[in-house]
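Researcher: I've been going back and forth with a colleague about how Histidine kinase might be arranged in three dimensions. Neither of us has a model we trust, so I'd like an independent prediction. The organism is Methylobacterium oryzae, in case that matters for your notes. Sequence below.
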Amino acid sequence: MRASDFRSFHEASKRSGVILSFGGDLSENILFSLGEVLKLRMRHEETDAAVAKRVFSIFVEQAQNVIRYSADKVAPAEPPGPARVSAGMIAVGTEEGRFFVVCGNEVGKTEVPRLRERLDEISGLSNDELKKVYREKLRQPPDEGSLGGSIGLIEIARRSSAPVEYDFQDLGAERSLFCLKAFI
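Model: Here is an independent structure prediction for Histidine kinase. You can compare it with whatever you and your colleague have in mind.
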């Protein structure tokens, strides 16, 4: 990438309201470091504490989803530790007076229908319904194939100020790019 390309990328990010972005190989250690930068940035801008907490929570959930579920894995976790490294992108910014957190990662094409169905279901729920589904999920075993408690997407929807937005872009025979955007 030349300086002019990077400058164009940087200016486009600023025009889009991006205040923090990361793209590449993501791990729990990198997530921790990015989280510290996000906290400092929000403190510097004197963001309301309740809003900052929600932004940070959604940021962590989305980054963990990239780490756990990206089809583009650099280093799968091996017992006994959580040394999982997966490729993806995450950004935090402001748009029309509210924060957003958006992430993107590759997923297997076979996962798209199930993920789309789950997101459609979650997006159509009220806050009270989300709370009820969240509590029910806490009492159940994780979904098959889940690397967490199967509550991450519900948690993102609960902390968002509007229904989450998502999209898939075909990347060929086996993979799609999955993007998820939450507003706070």
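Researcher: What would you highlight for our discussion?
Model: I'd start with this: The chain is about 45% helix and 25% strand. After that, consider the following. The mean pLDDT is 90.
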